[in-house]
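2024-03-11 09:14:02 DEBUG pipeline.ingest accepted 1 chain
2024-03-11 09:14:02 DEBUG pipeline.ingest length=296
2024-03-11 09:14:03 DEBUG pipeline.predict start
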Amino acid sequence: MSLAPRVVLVHRTTEYEELVAHHGTHGQAAFFLSSRGRDIEELADRHRRTRAALAEVTAAIPLTWRQSRVERADLDRFLFAPEDVVVVVGQDGLVANVAKYLAGQPVLGVDTDPGRNPGVLVRHRPSAVAGLLPVVDREVDELTMVEAVADDTQRLLALNEIYLGAAGHQTARYRLGLDGDGGAVEAQASSGVLVGTGTGATGWLRSVWRERGAELRLPGPAEERLLWFVREAWPSPATGTSLVAGELTASARLRLTVESERLVAFGDGMEGDALELTWGQSVRVGVCRERLRLVG
């Protein structure tokens, strides 16, 4: 007998909860904010809307279905099953945070704060969940992801972008090149390398792209093409600046070989879940074979 679907509700601790946890009580947190000219009610109101959305989504789950709940900080320790339906309740970035841990499960993004969130990935209101859950597999957009694979088999996936560089965003030293480019590489010192998807083109990648004069066409979310940029490459007798931007098609790979004590690679801003790279290690970055299946 096949198992009933399981809905996994993904959420994150609200700013209000973090503030109260830090200061101990609502009153202490309110005093802290008021001393800095802020009103805690703004955060408390967003907290109430988020909790109300979670309650509404929970009530919409069919009684015969199983359900589970996971907080953002626990995603790397949660085991998703093939039959899961993942419902992300929160901001667009939370969908990106969960994408790397999935293997084809459909994702339904629920916006808890319309007007504040862009709604690129959290496309639905809580009231729509009851009607969408039974048909989540019918209309999904398959969004391109990016992967980094180290020579020791470490692997990292991301929906928006992967950053490779020094921890703390200090100067990173490495050799950069493209697979199949005749072995040409360039020694560089920079603030790191950013490789992003069409989904990431609405965020960090777009910021860098605009600063560079927008000479490269941004990819679409479902397009098997990535853009990469070197951030603040530094010219010196030992380091160059000729390889600072480009695109990667489905089969192309960007190769980075570490020439400093420690570099990291992390995806979608989750620095706590990063690849650790040391002297002489290499990592290849390109289009990922897995895709995020996002309910449209």
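2024-03-11 09:14:41 DEBUG pipeline.report The longest strand covers residues 282-295.
2024-03-11 09:14:41 DEBUG pipeline.predict end
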